[in-house]
Design brief:
CATH topology of the largest domain in chain A: Nucleoside Triphosphate Pyrophosphohydrolase
Shape of chain A: elongated
CATH superfamily of the largest domain in chain A: Nucleoside Triphosphate Pyrophosphohydrolase
Number of domains of chain A: 2
InterPro entries (chains A, B): NUDIX_hydrolase-like_dom_sf, NUDIX_hydrolase_dom, WH-like_DNA-bd_sf, WH_DNA-bd_sf, WHD_NrtR
Number of strands of chain A: 11
Largest sheet of chain A: 6 strands, mixed
Organism (chains A, B): Spirosoma validum
CATH class of the largest domain in chain A: Alpha Beta
Number of helices of chain A: 5
Largest interface: A-B, 23 and 23 residues
Oligomer: homodimer
Protein name (chains A, B): NUDIX domain-containing protein
Structural class of chain A: alpha+beta
Helix content of chain A: 25-40%
Radius of gyration of chain A: 22 Å
Pfam families (chains A, B): NUDIX, WHD_NrtR
Order of helices and strands of chain A: EEEHEHEEEEHEHHEE
């Protein structure tokens, strides 16, 4: 791993991405596991080049992990507590990864400190949170130099991540729920065509509660956001559902 | 003015505050004019101390300009374009404020550059936008060392501000409109007690369109956010409106 150089990046600023994908009534988040010894999961993160817009940086980080461009992306919150880079996390990281520790050979009794080239890991970072909504079937998760592995995890069964990363996911989900009706962005989680039943299942999964079928359908259609396509031929013609497509 | 020292603040990070106040069917923003020569208006801004949460920093900046604590505050957007600190602004600033310019006496033909102690003015800053909703009647606008004056301006008649500050106000207003129904935060713009007519006028002002009286009243009351108090005694008892208070 190459720590960011002082010159290249805006210092003390990071980007954390919550990449949501949906499949079979389950909302998932793409979470890499850091290549360090120990079970350190962390959201896909990165830094901002001095000549790069922050939105561009977020797109770059997303593309590195998903392999796809043109992902639906929303900035949702800045994590800016002074003490968010917890000492507990650092202590455990050092304990399990002794190669990160610098010791002064003159004084073996001093506190272990992290080696110069890794000290950005313990600095204060103000992190801009972005969430992405992707069609999970189009993503082939990609490891970067930083990762041991990268997997989809159900929102309800996320691993314990470093620092405040679990809270970041909570906040992203809260924002998604809060503005979903105005932004009509949930459709980005579906394949290009879908049935009304697919939409209802998706909404029920995101909000974690059931909706009455008739009201739901009426509400969705009243938004004038969907284009109705042909019916799916199932053999039982009268039961065949319509396919829809989102009109961007 | 004292430029921020390298050690004290998180570098390249600023906070810009859009302070909304409401009075007589007009939505206003509190805008200081910089003490430089020339008409440079800029949103109330500041920096983040190394040991300070970003929300604390925003509260400090707000208190400096409004004199009040416990202001309703929402983070709404990070302005992070690489080129947002425009050269045009800098050129005009230097033109009107020659004392900011450093000239190399060895070479009088070189481009004018800004003096070292002011060079943070031309650096790239990533700015976190906060909007505040205040009861305008409680605010006594305060000038800081940076300001020549500070005034309320109608959102519809804002002065041309530096950099992207006018766009920042637009974005704040857009966010306020988008989440007002879920956050029920508009009441922070009113005095402690108000009539239903006051609420309707406020909403009409924020959304810049009329609402039908009956529907509006029904919608507001269905939110269960208001506590009904006694009637205002006006002499014509049957026309006296109820007073309401927001239940936080």
């Amino acid at each position: 791993m190459h720590p960011p150089s002082e010159q290249d990046y805006v210092q003390q600023l990071s980007i954390d991405c919550v990449i949501f994908g949906y499949k079979d009534r389950q909302l998932n988040v793409l979470v890499p596991k850091l290549y360090f010894q120990g079970d350190f999961w962390a959201l896909p993160s990165g830094f901002v080049y001095q000549d790069e817009d922050i939105d561009e940086a977020a797109r770059r980080i997303l593309q590195d992990r998903t392999g796809i461009k043109d992902v639906y992306l929303e900035q949702f919150q800045v994590m800016g507590k002074a003490g968010r880079n917890s000492r507990a996390f650092l202590d455990r990281l050092i304990e399990l990864n002794p190669e990160l520790v610098a010791r002064n050979p003159e004084n073996l009794r001093e506190e272990p400190t992290i080696r110069r080239e890794y000290d950005w890991f313990i600095r204060r970072f103000i992190s801009i949170g972005y969430y992405a909504l992707v069609d999970l079937t189009k993503v082939i998760p990609q490891k970067t130099d930083l990762d041991q592995s990268i997997e989809w995890y159900a929102v309800k069964h996320l691993p314990q991540m470093i620092m405040d990363h679990n809270e970041i996911v909570e906040k992203a989900l809260e924002t998604l729920r809060l503005t979903l009706d105005q932004k009509l962005n949930a459709f980005n989680l579906l394949p290009e065509t879908f049935t009304m039943k697919d939409v209802q299942e998706l909404y029920e999964t995101i909000f974690d509660k059931p909706f009455a079928r008739n009201n739901f359908q009426k509400k969705i259609l009243s938004m004038n956001a969907l284009e109705r396509l042909e019916k799916i031929y199932t053999g039982a013609a009268n039961k065949a559902p319509y396919l829809y497509r989102f009109q961007k």
